[in-house]
Design brief:
There is one protein chain. By secondary structure, the protein is an alpha/beta fold. It has a single domain, classed as 3-Layer(aba) Sandwich (Rossmann fold). Helix content is 35%, strand content 15%. It has 5 helices and 6 strands, in the order αβαβαβαβαββ. A 6-stranded mixed sheet has the order 3-2-4-1-5-6, with helices on both faces. α2 crosses α3. It starts with a helix and ends with a strand.
Amino acid sequence: MKKTFRLLFLLPLFVLLGSVARGSVAATLPLAELAKPGRVLMLRHAEAPGVGDPPGFRLDDCGTQRNLDDSGRHQARTLGTRLANAGVVPARVYSSQWCRCLETARLLQLGPVTELPALNSFFERSQHREATIAALRSFLANLPPDGPPVVLVTHQFTINAFTSAGTPSGGGSIFQLDGTGNPRWLGTLPTD
């Protein structure tokens, strides 16, 4: 019984240590970090209740998709204000073609929003994962390492492909561009 209790107690510690060793736990960075040259924020869209999209959804019809709710809209506006106050404006803003991402990107009000299919979801579309991530890595490799801030509004699985860590709605990860498709993960976006 004691042995089982110790194992149950130590198991979460081993999982945490394994995550640290693989680099999947990162520090929370101040928002001002994003104002530095060559920084990229991969941001998960704001709160949109549910999981995935309804069967038969279409990218050209927001009424068929899972969308932001009022708290998600508030979350996006608030984050945009926080980012602007930290000097992350104007930013180059790119978004997945999903309506919840586009709405999040626009509500941030950090700059014009450009649709980027390389940020699209591959949740429940695993056959698109490798091509989508390869296209995003190519896009990142072509961004100037000393350029202005870049905000990429995307989905949890896209961010996970670069960090191996979970991302809450409206949360994200900060990267340093280095001229490759594997920018250096610096840490996560503070949530308050």
